[in-house]
Amino acid sequence: MSHTLTIDGISKRYGDVVALDDLSFDVRPGEIFGFVGSNGAGKTTTMRIALGVLSADSGEVRLGNKPVDLEVRRTIGYMPEERGLYPKMKVGAQLAYLAELHGLTRAAARESVGRWTERLGISDRTGDTVDALSLGNQQRVQLAAALVHDPAVLVLDEPFSGLDPVAVDVMSEVLLEKARTGVPVIFSSHQLELVQRLCHRVGIIASGKMRAVGTVEELRGTGNVQLDVSAPEAPVGWAHHLDGVTTISHVDGRTLLSLEPHVDDQLILHTALKTGPVHEFSLHRPSLTEMFREVVTA
């Protein structure tokens, strides 16, 4: 049975620096949660506390109703941003060793290593040392290390960093597969287009505080919409009197407007038609990248 990973009011200070400030969110069974923020926002600190390798000053992390202790920690698959592999150890032996550390028998560990190295396209490299691999293949080994003990939850810090497009597709499919089995998956990434494509929900963190949490569509729905209107007979300023509407540009009868979330676009269309024919009327909702910029600079 899968459980929710709950981050409940965690705070962390380093001297006068507040790394996390009463941070709360959860990652539900079968959900891929994208955790995004600028460098230094608190993502890695949160993940280390979630794993139990760093203690919070206050608050608690739970898997289900159980606080993260050594027993729970063994059920978590973790991929650190600073990769933690032994460079001079052979890939297959290293993965089997890590699986056994998490409680698998030697036979079960060997079987799991074979399955995951095959799935991740590195089965022909198990006899190589890690430092002999390309960066992309090292990333695949690191992901295999997070998966080899069949974890109950996945916590991945920048797992797509340095991957080629083929490896990105492989890793994406693996995360989707794990989520489909009910595993809660949280990963951080600066590749917001990828987050938008993969994640069920997204949390945006800035200066140690969670600034926004929701589905991609919910987050995009909170930002201003842009409306492109082609009305060749419309005069400059034809939409100025409308509440919540700002004119961005007006060139040769083509007007770009910014609409606050409450504005009825049909009222704008009605107003535009009063000026003459309307040849184009198209809405553009902000992308996750645009929303991110808006949230972190607010």
From TrEMBL:
GO terms for MF: ATP binding; ATP hydrolysis activity
Keywords, comma-separated and alphabetical: ATP-binding, Nucleotide-binding, Transport
A matching Pfam family: DrrA1-3_C
Ranges for domain ABC transporter: 5-232
InterPro entries with a match to the protein in the record: AAA+_ATPase, ABC_transporter-like_ATP-bd, ABC_transporter-like_CS, DrrA1/2-like_C, P-loop_NTPase
SUPFAM superfamilies: P-loop containing nucleoside triphosphate hydrolases
SMART domains in alphabetical order: AAA
Protein name as catalogued: ABC transporter ATP-binding protein
Taxonomic source organism: Rhodococcus oxybenzonivorans
